[in-house]
Structures are given as C-alpha cells and as structure tokens.
Amino acid sequence: MSEQALQILKTVFGYDEFRSHQSAIIENILKRNDTLAIMPTGGGKSICYQIPALIFPGLTLVISPLISLMEDQVNQLQALGIPAALLNSTLSSREYLETLGNVQKGTIKLLYMAPETLMLERTRQLLDSIHLDCLTIDEAHCISEWGHDFRPEYRQLAGLRQQFPNAVCVALTATATPQVQQDIKNSLQMADSNEFIASFNRTNLFLEVIEKQNPVVQTLRLIEKYPNQSGIIYCNSRRQVDELTAVLAGHNCSVAAYHAGLTNDERAANQSAFIRDDIQIIVATIAFGMGINKPNVRFVLHFDMPRNIESYYQQIGRAGRDGLPAYCHFLFGYGDIQKVKFFINQKSESEQRIANLHLNTLIAFAEAEECRRIPLLHYFGEHYTLENCQLCDNCLSEKQPLCNVTVPAQKFLSCIYRTGQLFGAAYLIDVLRGSKAKKVLERQHDQLPTYGIGTELTKPQWQQLSRKLLQENLIIQDQEFGSLKLTEAARTVLKGERQIEIRLTQRPEFTGKSKTAAEQQTQLDYNHTLFHTLRACRKVLADQENVPPYIIFSDKSLMEMATWFPQSKESLLQINGVGQVKLDHYGDAFLDEITRFCSEHQIAEIARPSRTVPLSSSVEKKVASGRHIEIGELFTRLGCLDQMQSDLNIKLSTTLSHLYKYQSDVAQLPTTDAFICKSSLAPDQQDRVMAAMAIHGTERLRPVFEELRGEISYDELHLLRLHYLTHR
Ligand code: ADP
Ligand code: ZN
Questions:
Q1: Is the Cβ atom of 295 under 6 angstroms away from ligand 1?
Q2: Helix, strand, coil proportions of the chain in percent (round to 5)?
Q3: Closest Cα to atom 27, ligand 1: which residue?
Q4: Are 533 and 591 in contact, with CB atoms under 8 Å apart?
Q5: How many domains does the chain have?
Q6: What is the CATH number of the domain that holds 112?
Q7: What is the model's pTM?
C-alpha cells in the first residue's frame, strides 16, 4: 500500500486503517487506472477518491447529482482542512468567480459540481484551462437507464471523459445490479479488471421482521429503545405519515414529518432539524433519504411494506453509516400485501409481471425462516454462507423443533370452507378460537362445528400456519378483498393424505428479541454521562458554525473519547476520527470537557491502543502539519484575512486554527489589526476578553470562556486570541 495514502488516512482523516477494498481501489487510482468501485452505503467510497486527490498534483473533479450531498462533502472536507469547493448555479456571481479563480490558481484540490453545471459554456472554458488529474463520477448508476435513478445529463459524461484522456476516471455507486454495472463500464469504457465490488452485507445492521399487529403500539414500544437517538420511520402514504407523526408527538416523541405534500420550506426545515439533531425521529414517505448523509441514524422502521427488496435495502442502508450497530425493524402485515397488489393491478400487464416478481421476493424475505441475510444478499447475487449471522431475528431465535400441525391445518381449511370462503385469516382465527366478537355472533358463526375448536395455537401461531398454507398453495388469497379460498390441493390435507410440518414460533405478542440484541450490541464500554456531555459540547460548536454536528466529530469519536478519557492533545489525536486540523480546531473544547469530567469523577486516562503515525514524511508536511506553515507564511506576506480566504478557499475558522499553530510552533506573526477587525464584539467586550486572556493565558480557551460566563462564542475567542498574541 502506498505509504503516502496511509499517512493521509491517519493524519488528515484520523482513521487507523483502511476498510475492505479501500486500499486496493486507491492503489489502482494512483496507478492511473480507470476504476469502478461498487460498495454499499456507508462502505466508505468517498475516501477512495479523496485520498488520491490529495496526492495528485492537479485537480480532482467530482460529478455528483445532488447539491445537498455535495455541500455536505465540501463541509466535511473543509472541516478536515482540505481545500474543496462546489460550483453550482446557486452561487452568487462573486462567489462563482472567486471559486473559479481559486481553481485556476490551483489552490483547490477537489471541485464538486452537478452535471448540469458541467454543460455550461463557462465551465467548459474553465476545464480547458486547467490540469485535471482525476475525474470522479459519484452515484455513477445515474448514467444507466436500467438504474433506479437515471439522469439524462449523466450521459454526456462519456464525452467529458474523452476530453480528458490523461485524467484517471473513477466511478462510484452503491447499486449492485449487474446490468447497471455493465452499463457504467460501457459508457465510460472501463475494463473489467478495474472493477472492485465490495460485499453488500452490512455487518452492523440488525435485521428483524415483526408481524404487524397493532402497528402504532408496536412503533411506540420499539422507539422506546432508542432514547435520544436518531431514527427514520417509513410509511407508504402521506396520510399515514401525518397520522403517525401526530400520535408520536402526542406521546412526547421528538418527531417531524416528511413527504411530498409539505411545502419545500417545511420539508427543508424538517430535514435540517433531523440532520442537526434538533429532532430525533423523522416519519417519512420514500421521498425522504436521497441526499442524506447523516451517519448516526440508529434505526429504520418500516411501518408499511416497502415496494420491493431493492427499496428496502436502500432504505435500511440509511441506518448506521458510521459503522456502529443500527437496527432495522420491518412491520410485515398480510393486509399490506393486498394494498401493494392493488397498486400493481393498476399497471400495464408487463409491468405487473415484474412488480409481482419483486413483491414475491420481498414476501419470501419476510417469511424466511433462515438467516435474513441469505435471501437479502441472494437478491444482489451474493451467496451468504455464514451459519449464524448473530444479527437477525431468525439467527437469534432459538430453533424450534418441527411440529406436525396437520390437524390444526385441517381445522383451518375446514373453517374456510364452512364460512363460505369469504373471510381473511384474522376472522377465521377468531372463529377457531371461539371469539365472542359481535361480528362472529351476528353471522352465527358460533353455531359452526369449527367454532372454538382451535385453542391449541396462539393467534400468531395460527397466522403462521395460515402463511404456510399459502406458501404451499393449499389456499389462495383474493387479491382485492383478502379472503382465503381453498385450492384443489387442500383436499389432500383434509383427507389426511398430506402432512403439514412447521416450526411454531413461541414469539411473545410483540417482539422482544431485538431488545436483547440491541442491548448486547450497544454495550460498548463507554461512559454514557461523558458521552452525553460531549454531544452537548459538539451541538453548541455545530450550531455556532452552522453545520450538522457530525461534521465536527462522529458519535464514534465521542464514544472513543468517553472510553479512553484522553486528556492531552497527543492522546486526543489517537482517537478515531481526530486528525490534525480537527485537533487544532476543536481539541481544546473537548479536552476541557473531558479533563473537567475526569477530575470531578477521579478518572484517569486509559492508553488507547496506538495509531502509530509515522513521523515527518513528505506527505505529512504537505497535507497536514505543513499547511499551517504555508498559511502562516502567506499571512505574514499578505497581512489580510479576506484575501487569504479567497485564495485558499478555506473557512475563516480553519485559517485561524492554522495561524494559531503557526504562531505557537513556528514563528511570531506580525502585529496586525486584521483579527480585531473581524470581531463583531463591542470594544468593552473585547477588553474583557483581553483581560481574561491576561489572567488565564491563551493555551486553553475554556477558562476564558467561563470567566466570561459563556457569553462570548469560541469563534470570537479564536479571533481575539490571535489579536492578543500579535500585540504582546
Ligand atoms: P459511502 O459514500 O460509501 O456511503 P462514506 O464515504 O460516506 O460512505 O463513508 C461512511 C463513513 O465511514 C464516513 O463517516 C467515513 O468518514 C467513514 N470511513 C470511511 N473510511 C473509513 C476508515 N477506513 N476507517 C474509519 N472510518 C471510515
Ligand atoms: Zn442471520
């Protein structure tokens, strides 16, 4: 593996090691071989082109279909101190020209744009004038008409690729169907040998299918398991979304709705509140999810049936992108099948055939008694071989012995016959179990010989038997009304010529299994109080900077901090996801919280198994530790923050971190009013900050922050610290 790439992974991104396929992909790109990378959501595709982008001398152009995703990427990169920018139509002409200038000067390493922007004449001119090293096509399935998200503008990328024969082309997607893969390769003229396909098995997702009985109560019980955590609940209709949102809100859940019936502003506000951890749960139709990069979604609940297995996979894929355990609960009801079938019946005949095929695959997944990963991955052409995945309801349930249920089956079939083949399973079960419900008595079904003869099985077990009879084609269900009817084959069972065996589940009425699984999984050994304190600290910083909290640090980083209690910059740097720039920028705030917590609770730091970062190599100088030198020298020369901003295209806050590091480690900055000019505080407030710095020093800002009773933001303190230091 390229030493340089590993260095960047550690010093810039703060990660210990590459995930499966990442290093092979990066190596292939660095050899300038065109590369197609297929990885599931959360697999870590971005790093595959971002690291080469930092190594290549010229520009990496990234084409991506959604502005929100590009903005998120650019924010994340900037927080890591990587010069990245986005060119799109929403930029003001000043911003546009500024970015353009920076690209031409070569100060930007990664430039994101939508394919529409690419078509503009002025963009073409820009590209003609620069040195392009890498052309990355994100969401590359958009190029294929077979894909679920075909975008005609993507078609012109083939032409763009020819325009830059010397740039290496990288295509990335999470779509697994072979037809789409072939289409991408053909369009971009890629060789098979340069294709990397990661497994679609998301090993941190717990899968569970629950029989839908009383979905609202089931939902309330499920979400109780995720206090203060983020989750998505998918429903099939806007009405259902609104109803469920109202019920959950009535139960004091932190919840908002998302569907196409809301105004653009409402949708954007609800989505943003979810991403920023202002609300915990979003109840949504399938309209929600594209363009969401939130890594800490802890559960996805399907309140209704997804359209097919591919949408199911795509939707559960939004859980657990951070690699921590996440839970997928699917409320599966036979009534829902009827609804989907009703919609399918409206389609043309050929579409109906395909839709039915897809529906059946989904039903087979839901009804599977084997590991859920077998049918799920089979759909994507993968053969799952592990005997017990430990992460699905079926693998975790104790295998019940096969039970001969021929006699109950005969009772069920005969009950269908005697009630005139007009009713669904729920009603038949009521009759069999001797229900005194009005509907049963009114029809005088309490007079039937099959009334009350079925107490040997519980309701869910009768449901299970009814499903088995459907699977075995002994009965069929009316597509419109849901009533069950006997087939010819039922006769063999009624006559006792055929035996029926199933593994009767002993499930409690509502699922109890995932609770144990969830408990097992989340028992990561971290201090929950400190974790919540750190989350609160992160939220304050995120709101100040107007970014989602995960841009600052992931939950995983905070959990690690709450596990190892790092109390110095060196040990904080060992934490997963803490790279040099984030350390410089946010280190103080988090170290202060940790140190205070540890001294209050008399906890000592624990040495984290080390991420050995090789010392000073050329990359480290160039990408991480060298950046502050470059910036410090530039500032010494220019003496103007605004010009630096536009030249470097990094945030003011990042610039300030670099300058502080330069001032502390390298050389004194010139005396300047450049910092105080940027401050929006009143002069007397500025004086109070200076006085507090004189007392507490400038190495840590927390004491200053507290001295001023938290009234002055950290952004101001960062600015004024540099003013203070340049005026000593
Ligand atoms: P994808 O685009 O494939 O859905 P991302 O590139 O967004 O996935 O990566 C998902 C998450 O995993 C991100 O938070 C990313 O920073 C993290 N990640 C990627 N590679 C690694 C790695 N080698 N070690 C730890 N975390 C990683
Ligand atoms: Zn399993």
A1: yes
A2: 50, 10, 40
A3: 44
A4: no
A5: 5
A6: 3.40.50.300
A7: 0.72
